[in-house]
Amino acid sequence: MSRIKWTLLIAPVAALIVVLALRNEAPALTEANTSIRELESRFTAAVHAKDLDGIMANYTNSDDLVIFDVTPPRQYTGWNAYKEDWKNALAACKDAPTVEISELEIFGGATYAYSHSIQHFTCTDPQGKKTDMILRVTDGYANFRGKWLIAHEHISVPVDLATGKADLQSKAP
Question: How far apart are CA 23 and CA 164, in angstroms?
């Protein structure tokens, strides 16, 4: 069979496979988007309630969990380490902390997804000092038997390179 005839035969078959694959993926993307938005809503409610177990229920309970938080150390590895970080963060808030999520964009498929968002965190410490941070958050999610969980998280703030100071009130240009 000539190369041209072979190409004319294979091209439509390949196109059909791609169309079928994308058609089957569309419901998974919609379900993932809805489920992840629900996860983020549960997360913000748990933060406001100072519900440590509720916060951690959104993360993979695994030693493989990796979190790059804005607080030292450079990274938290494992569910227990990050739970301790959240325990300390909640203890540092005299009042009910708030997290407002905006600009949440979700990408992915049936088993893995990621998102990026802007998160505004506020609380008052025991001495009455207000903590007010606008954070950039990127989450990596894994679907475990139909339940989406955060498997990796990266939280950051812009840094003024001239002064070395974090910009905790960063605004979009």
Answer: 48
Instruction: Please say whether the beta carbons of 71 and 153 come within 8 A.
Output: no
Structure tokens that stand for 165 in this block: 């100071």
Domains of the chain, earliest start first = 3-166 (3.10.450.50)
pTM of the model: 0.81
Kindly provide the b/e burial profile for residues 1-32, where b requires at least 16 CB atoms within 10 angstroms of the residue's own CB.
Answer: eeeeeeeeeeeeeeeeeeeeeeeeeeeebeeb
Q: For residue 16, give the H/E element and its range.
A: helix 3-48
> What are the pLDDT tens digits along the chain (173 aa)?
555 554 455 555 544 454 444 454 455 567 889 999 999 999 999 999 999 999 999 999 999 999 999 989 999 999 999 999 999 999 999 999 999 999 999 999 889 999 999 999 999 999 999 999 999 999 999 999 999 999 999 999 999 999 999 999 988 87
